Amino acid sequence: MASLFVFVPLLALLLLHLPVARTFFRRISPYVVGLLLTLQAIVAIVPPGALEDPKAQPWFLPVDISYDGLTRVLLLTIGFVGLSALVVARSTLSAPKARLDFESLLLASLAAMNGVVLVQDLFSLWLFIEALGVGSFVLVASRKEPGGLEGAFKYLLLSAVASVLMLAGVALLLMAAGNTTFAAIRAAVEAGGMFPAGLATILFLAGLFVKGGVVPFHGWLPDAYTEAPPAVSVLLAGIVTKVGGLYTLIRLASECFRGVPGLDTLLLVLGTASIFTGALAALPQKDMKRMLAWSSVSQVGYIVVALGAATPLGLAGAVFHLFNHAIFKTQLFVNAAAVEAATGTRDMDRMGGLSHRMPWTSGTSVVALFSTAGIPPLAGFWSKLIILIALWQAGHEGWAAAAILGSLVTLAYFLSLQRRVFFGKLAENMESVREAGRGLVVPAVLLAAATICVGVFFFFILETFILPVQNILG
Amino acid sequence: MTLELVLLVLLVVAAVWTVLARGLVGAAIGLAVTSVVLSVLLFQMHAPWAAVFELSVCAGLITVVFVSAVALTRAESPQELARATERRWRRYVALPILLVVVAVALAYLGVPEIPPSRPMGEPGVGETLWRLRPTDVLGQVLILFTGVLGVVVLFKERGNDAR
User: Fold this and answer.
1) Higher pLDDT, B119 or A313
2) pTM metric for this prediction
3) Of B68, B142, B148, B160, which to mutate for an interface test with A (greatest number of A Cβ within 10 Å)?
């Protein structure tokens, strides 16, 4: 049944582009996409056993896919973020053709992302990552403005390098394991030395670091996030890089590559480098979206560091932070879209005092940025706490201290953002600013509510969703 | 074997043509020809699925993308063309040197023997592949769709503007 997660969006995409009844299909397109995303989120919330016996023979396509705790969290996140992006697209894209293009590409990305989180085979994984990449380049460039084209070009170039690295890794692992299933690769990596299994792992990981925007492979990320259309930024920052780079890193580092010597240290070093590079680069930014993009680099670092702890708790922390980060970063990009739509600029030096004019946007933004900085009792506090405990228990006290320091810098740049954009005296030329439309306020409010609820009902979420993830360690 | 050798030589010729072609359209067509020859070779070596995807994705889709992108550019003026082609052969000086180095290295290391092409087993290779790797077929289809969608989104409207 799980193969329907890939097949249904693909089928919907085909139907929407049939040469018959175009007007009808165009009219229902947003509702179809919205319904699919909602259904996906609901199915992900339902416990897996309730729907289908996991050991039963697949009755639909005989594809090799699995549905476990980690997949559930990701499917849920994809549903949430996809819905937000869809609503933002409705309010920020005015041309019907642009909306249809976005909805089609969202469907294609949805099929690709679901494929990435469901497959159990390294080559299939690579294929779906490629499909996701193709959709993302087009989305970033879809406004056809010089900035967006430059962002898409950088993304395309670095992603092409990543693809080659990953494919070379797959080829070497096929040599070593004779097969590309996760189980076979795990056996080969545990048995094999530095060549070819170790080298292959390094090549594949380098590709994943590019896709996830981990320092020093993050060069494409600020431009792509900043210059993409608002709805695309939401999708890209909220979920695409999380699925393409970080989910795969979590899955492979814990399931396949555990036997590689030095992997933990590599993850700790690169994760900490990401935390500080992202945070320090975010501090002096004037462009609101660019600051959020650099903040993403920094938050990705926490996920990578948590994996570096190489314990079940570290894995839980990484997945929990991935979920939380997807929710609050999506919301911050929705807020940025609202501010840009209302003021016509992203330059924070020209803003100020917008909280009087845009109370909803300002209020929700406070929630998201406090959560990012790890202020209790919001969602981000708990995931960061789990990461710190995991690092401490694994004997990495120094790395834990560095992570705390990084959080302080996060608080500093986000307070600066809030002060420059929302607090203080209303800036000149901003008297006529009004709250952006409902399409940009409602998703922000719902996402902020999710951040608060996950924080308040933290134990429930942890027990039901996050701790079952540890089963993938087997 | 002889047919395979002829195809391999054709493959190299088409690839060199792609690199040396004067115009972008020529290079794109050269690449398409390379892909077609490669897919014939793959058919010959009993890998029909690889051949089909090589033909559809590389020879078909990618050529469409390249040619549509080239269609959006403006033709060079004679002066620009002269400047670009003036010393173009110098760019390829390294090519024969590289070829000699590779040939010497291969002769030194020993050319690996080309494994004999295996006869198609029962049930057909295509069916076996579908049974073994259906997920990949789904992924390939998705990449194709997304690629075509990308060409439509990025190029259709602009093509009209450029007229």
Assistant:
1) A313
2) 0.85
3) B142
